[in-house]
Amino acid sequence: MTLRREYSLGHSEYNAFLFASVGEEKIGMPLTVLTALTRLGVDPWLEAARLADLSKEAALQAFTATIARLPEGDWTASDAGAIAARLLSWLPGKSTPAVPAMAVRPGVGARTKSGFAPWLVWGALAVAILLVTVYLQADHNLEPGTRAGGTTQQ
Question: Distance between CA atoms of 90 and 93, rounded to whole angstroms?
Fold first, then answer.
C-alpha cells in the first residue's frame, strides 16, 4: 500500500515545516517541529495539514499555544509567538485534499471473493494426506490387522 503524498517523507509538502528547527534543547540538541509535535502526542502530518488549512492568524494562535506547551530550551515561553511565526512561514498555503474513500458495494469483500478457494485447497490437502497414509500402511487398511483366528495383532 502506498502512502498518501503528504505522508511520504521523501515527497511531503510539509517537510520544510516539520524538519525546521524550533530551537536548541537544554542538552544542546536541535529540536525540530516533527520531534516537538511527537513529544506532545500530536500527529505531525495531521497537525501540519490542519495548520495549513487555517487562516494565518488562527494558525499562529494555535501553533503559539503548541510551542508554549514545550519544555523550554534556548527559548522561553515568551518567545513562543515569534518561534511559531517563523516556523509557520515554512508551511504551504493549503493542505492537499484527502484521497477519497473507495465505495464498497454491499456483499462484496475480501471474504466473498475468495471464500470457496481456501476450503477447496485445504480439502484437497486433507484428501492427499489421507491417501498417503493409506498407501504407507502395509496392508493398505486403516483398521488394526486381524489374525485368521479373529484376534488383533499387538
Answer: 9
